[in-house]
Folic acid synthesis protein FOL1
Amino acid sequence: MPTWIATLRVNPARFAATRKTHQALAPFHGRPQSHAFAAVQSLHPQCRAHVSALETTCLGSGKHHLHTALQNFRMQRAHYHYEATAKTHRAFIALGSNIGNRVAMIEQACKEMESTGKIHITRTSSLWESKAMYVLDQDSFVNGACEIATPLSPIQLLNELQKIEQKMGRVKLIDKGPRNVDLDILLYDNVTYLDERLEIPHKHMLEREFVLRPLCELITEEKQQDFPFKLSLQSYLKTLPPPGEPLVRLTPLAPDLSPISSAQISLNTRIMAILNTTPDSFSDGGQFYNRGNALLEKTMRERIEAGATIIDIGGQSTRPGAIQVSVEEELARVLPAVKLMRSIPEATDITVSIDTYFGVVAEEAIKAGAHLINDVSAGTMDDTMLPTMAKLGCTVCLMHMRGTPGTMNNTEMMSYPDGIVETVGRELLGRVRAAEMAGVRRWRIILDPGIGFAKTHNHNLELLRRQDELMRYPGLEGMPWLVGTSRKAFIGQITGVKDAYKRTWGTAVAISAAIQGGVDIVRVHDVDQMAQVVKMADALWPKRRFVSLPVEIQDIILNYSSADTVLAAKLGCMLGLESPFLWNDGPLKVTLEERYVIRPSGSSAESQVWFGEHTSGIFYLARAG
């Protein structure tokens, strides 16, 4: 092996700066560029990634010697470990847009990446809306991140991403200005890379909440050793100063319709109205089965007028013991209803949902005008469902269920030795992972705990009591939730009301509990009555809006003592209060123009993060598990 190759193999970062470099390259001085290229091709694979760049530098001149080219690319600063082989690399891409239909632009960019055949998106984050940084006079951005697998080198990947931006019409007028699409490489394996065009890790990523927050969804604390950082990304995120306005998580429902949003002004619970076109559903079977369009249209209009913002159309009963009907029969039931719904002028701002566990039915319903797929099996009853969801690119609801409607009430199906909340969280996370692997975007997923499906009535009650804990299950944090308790059997068991359609009062209480737990959507039969319940429950228990607190406040809270009034006063000063706090039985309370409360939650201060929440004049500091 030539000495210069051996030197490069041992320490490529210092190769250009050593005396051996010049000695080793001496045989190539003054030779044609083809000789230089041949030398590059013989380099150790760790360094071949520079071949295309070297070609650009050396073109047209044999005077550009190999060592000069290597120096120009500052290999002493590019501690780069890419091997130009068939190896698949792991990278993370930032996604952004603030022009036009921002969500659609991001989703189109994802499609373009995968259409190259060289970039496979393995997971995506949630989408977050934020005010612009640096150049403030522009519209808000929607940002996210995706994890990819690719055989491309960093420079090759950069080239592909820039081609996509150009294809989608991006024109860069000013640095950090408005853009219809923005694709940036954040991380690439465990690599630190630097040249004139690209820096990895991205040089601004640790100062941007709109980058770190979605990235933290993809990279957990225990995976930090895979990346070149001294601290975890979560630690960097917590050190950022609080933004003027918190980031807002978005879940799109339908084109041109308002998304589910964590913004304070958008935190009213949405009502999903049940519309079954079946003869055998447990409470309303036969009500609209073969009854003609006039009654169906009248009911649709009434439910919209009563306050429903989502209409869930189903043609397959999922009650315990229900007999499955054919795909053809289900299509014959639901497609006319979907088309009718889309023809009603008052329904232009209503989300149409298809309640099915068959991929074919879902696809045909979406083609007919539905927006959302509501699958009680989360893809377990039809192997084509998750790929169909991914192909259609629409928003989906994944519900927790075990077995089938015919088997879900078997004893073994209702056994949860690890606890109902832990098990439902773990099993739902598994379905989320399966959906992501199939190509469903995380920002398109809604979750449902599956009240009444493979659960005893005590399980149902516990899930309602602890819904907020389930929403904080690791890996599911921040995702939107739907809960359906309407007229279900456990309500009848508790109240003694045998007729399902008479369980209105019990349903009202169960819905209130779900809203207190923080759910985003409730699925109901009796829209007129439940709309009033939702309004009252929303007023009593406004949705939580979490924002990061400065580190010094976090430190104070984590170390606070219920007897330390000095600490209380210091914390009050930091929060901008004009009066000192008063301690009262543990939680910290003060009455001013607004009421502030500190209430510790969770099990371990060391393992929890403190967040602030402001709702209806109440400021909470609570650990989010």
